[in-house]
Predict the structure.
Amino acid sequence: VDAPITPKQFHLGMFEIGRPLGKGKFGRVYLAKERSSNFICALKVLYKSELQHGTGVEKQVRREIEIQSNLRHPNILKLYGHFHDSKRIFLILEFAGKGELYKHLQRESRFPEWKAAQYIAQMASALQYLHRKHVIHRDIKPENILMGIHGEIKISDFGWSVHAPNNRRKTLCGTLDYLPPEMIKSGSKDNWYNEKVDLWSLGVLTYEFLVGEAPFEDTPIMTQKRIARADMTIPEWVSKEAKDLIKKLLVLDPEKRLSLEEVQTHPWIIKHCVKGERAANREKLSTGS
Ligand SMILES: Cc1nn(C)cc1-c1nc2c(-c3cnn(Cc4cccc(C(=O)N5CCN(C)CC5)c4)c3)c(Cl)cnc2[nH]1
């Protein structure tokens, strides 16, 4: 289904608003239908009053719009357009039919290896697309991933992404679990704008998909200490291929982390993804997952 005809000006009257889909720190999302085309989308509503208190969130929203509207990839949530009225800013987003990934993870507690591998392969493909456009996401975590109707995952929330390099401060909010060591340690900040930060977070994501909790989960102080030392243990029931990938991503030196190409050709990914369909199906049948 193509994007709706992109008129110069969108306005609220063009949409029939449906049920609320969710809410985040800075806004609510509603199911919506563009009247003339019957196109189903998600309308994210942000209140200007909440943005103006100099929390830098306004710049974040501007960045989200500027970056996300120029991206087209099956594993990146599309931003079709935006508009505003006196009190609110509206983002017209792709509707992800199966909602927020972290809720699926909570419900299933952890994903079987074949499913985790397919999600990580999709993430690597999306990140490769972003990095080729010199966009670093910098906030890869389950809460920022949605799921499409066919079970494919879609990175959303580009509020923290940047066009590398950029001298922007990242005020830490939300979980520390996904921060790479170079963003924990003070000192030179240019590493903050190295694409390799997303590879660290991909390693944390792989671990959390397979184990059901983040590798450095602890008290905030201890989490920072453990990240700075890459101090984690991988349960023995995780396959040796998956352990190998996690260990090659959660490397303190950004330059020594696997590249996205190496992730996509890693034995654990090959074994479970499209190429190894038969192997994956055998695995699924045997484990019944
Ligand atoms: C729910 C649901 N059930 N089903 C069957 C489908 C859905 C569904 N939801 C969406 C949503 C959706 C809704 N809420 N959210 C969560 C949300 C909403 C508003 C703002 C935020 C937010 O502030 N975020 C910033 C912080 N990071 C961590 C997080 C982002 C975060 C996203 C979107 Cl954008 C697109 N398609 C959807 N489909």
Notes: The first strand starts at residue 15 and ends at 24.
